[in-house]
Design goal:
Layout: E1 3-10, H1 17-33, E2 36-40, H2 52-57, H3 66-78, E3 81-90, E4 97-104, E5 110-115, E6 121-123, E7 129-131, E8 143-147, E9 150-154, H4 163-171, E10 176-178, H5 185-203, E11 206-209, E12 213-215, E13 221-223, E14 227-229, E15 235-238, E16 244-251, H6 253-261, H7 264-267
Parallel strand pairs: 1-2, 2-3, 9-10, 10-11
Antiparallel strand pairs: 1-16, 3-4, 4-5, 6-7, 8-9, 11-14, 12-13, 14-15
Helix pairs in contact: 1-3
Length: about 270
């Protein structure tokens, strides 16, 4: 399928999972009614808790996760492919949890899952401090989702700052890059649009980036602005700062057109590192 409608669901997740899931599903059904058959959700779509203890308490083993069951049922109901930005999943033998994205097919079956590789361990100039590695166990594997729309490179939030991951996806056949996020308002205002445009342009890929928005427990503020971009870096849809959804038509022939114009995937050279 070379032409279809994609959607990003933008939500303000808080610390009651059932409420978060219900709101996300409402927007997804509305997006489906608008024609979307590939629907993406943000990072932490089922829960935005404050503090490691609360995050761990709200995590479940994958086989028992109510959020995963919910989205598998929703995918089957809508007969659509869902990119479930991330759920918090208990890991056997670990005190930390996985921040795990799931790609679910229209049959309600998981196509693949991906654990966020790069941990957001930073101190911002405004005094905000984050140490994801204290709560989350980083993943160690890139994952391509082989969907009815072709191959999708899967990532989560802070991964966007590590361009080699997306170049590897493009070289492996991805035409779409998924970058669900809960970007902080501070870093989002500075870098969100620029980073996503760069990942689209340098790889000749569509980028689908569903995002959290608004104020969350513990004083965390996220940027919103879910984006769908084409391989030329053009913004096809922008979710602004409020909950809701956006849609855009994806024409995968555009990928081939752009890659012929700027064949950077073929022109890359190997070289000795510094």
């Amino acid at each position: 399928m070379t032409r279809f409608i994609a959607a990003c669901v933008q939500v303000n997740s808080r610390d009651v999972m059932s409420d978060n899931l219900a709101r996300a599903a409402t927007y997804a059904r509305d997006a489906h009614a608008a024609g979307a058959r590939l629907i993406a959700f943000p990072e932490n779509v089922s829960m935005m808790s404050f503090g490691g203890e609360n995050v761990r308490a709200a995590a479940f083993p994958e086989s028992e996760h109510p959020g995963l069951t919910f989205f598998c049922d929703l995918a089957e109901e809508l007969q659509s492919t869902l990119i479930v930005g991330s759920l918090h999943v208990k890991v056997a033998g670990e005190d930390r949890v996985a921040n795990r994205c799931f790609v679910v097919g229209p049959d309600g079956k998981v196509i693949t899952s991906y654990d966020k590789i790069h941990m957001f361990d930073v101190d911002l100039a405004n005094g905000e401090s984050y140490r994801e590695s204290k709560t989350f166990r980083p993943g160690d594997s890139a994952k391509l989702a082989d969907t009815e729309f072709g191959k999708v490179g899967v990532s989560i939030c802070y991964d966007v700052r590590f361009p080699h991951l997306f170049r590897d996806y493009a070289k492996a056949g991805a035409r779409i890059l998924s970058i669900p996020a809960a970007f902080t308002r501070t870093t989002g205002q500075a870098h969100w649009h620029t980073l996503l445009k760069a990942r689209a342009i340098e790889n000749g890929c569509f980028v689908i980036a569903a995002a959290q928005c608004g104020d969350h427990p513990g004083g965390r503020q996220t940027f919103g602005h879910s984006l769908i971009l084409d391989p030329w870096g053009e913004v096809l849809a922008d979710g602004g700062t409020d909950p809701g959804f956006i849609t855009a038509e994806i024409d995968l022939d555009r990928v081939d057109e752009i890659r012929r114009m700027v064949p950077s995937l073929q022109n890359g050279q190997t070289y000795k590192p510094c």
